[in-house]
Amino acid sequence: MNVISVFAMPVFIAVFIVYGLIKKVGVYDCFSEGAREGVQSMLGIVAPLVGLMVAINMFRESGALELLGSALSPLLSRVGFPAEVLPLALLRPISGSASLAVVTDLFQVSGPDSAAGKIASVMMGSTETTFYTVAVYFGAAGIKNTRHTIPSALSADLTGIVLSAVVARALII
Fold it and tell me: Could you tell me if 119 and 85 are in contact, meaning their C-beta atoms sit under 8 angstroms apart?
């Protein structure tokens, strides 16, 4: 297995070069053009990502997340949704890394085998970082009008959030 892992990438690259030469394709020109397009895509994505990261940090550091959590806590406890999981539910559609930080904190405080830990685990696997994904892919493709994408994706996230609590309570806890 070590021999395969050492030679896999060089052989893979050599196969592409040989195939390009057989088909009489300018391999280096294609590589240069692809690299140029990759850099242009990266530059188009950087601005939305920086804005998104700044907004997330402002939201977390301002205390708005904790304020919202404490305001909604009585309602959530009535429906069996642990208040500790609310920050994850709010941040998951926005940022994967912020969500992971919330889950890590939740595991340290409540434990991974707690009801909140199990719901958080199911939620992480059944929801998407909607705004991050839209910013990256729509930014790379140059799409400005998201039309129905955001409402549809947020509806799917809300469904995943609600069902994570339902499924975790019914099957795991």
Answer: yes
d(CA 92, CA 131): 9
Residue 63 included in any domain: yes
The reply to whether 19 falls in a domain is no
Please report where in the chains the tokens 């998951």 appear, as a residue: 92
Give residue-wise pLDDT tens across range 1-36: 788 888 899 999 999 899 999 998 888 898 899 899
pLDDT at residue 155, rounded to an integer: 94
| CA distance to 56, 94, 124, 157, 164, per residue, from 127 (Å) | 18, 11, 6, 5, 9
Alpha-carbon span 132 to 29, nearest angstrom:
32
Q: What is the pLDDT of residues 61-104, one digit of tens each?
A: 898 877 887 888 888 887 788 888 988 898 899 888 888 888 99
pLDDT at 82: 87
Contact assessment for residue 123 and residue 99, using Cβ atoms and an 8 Å cutoff = no
CA distance to 2, 13, 39, 98, per residue, from 85 (Å): 43, 46, 38, 13
- Interior angle at CA 157, CA 92 and CA 172, nearest 5: 85
Contact 101, 53 (CB under 8 A): no
Query: E-strand spans in the chain?
Result: none
Average pLDDT, stretch 138-146? 82
| Structural domain harbouring 88 | 44-172
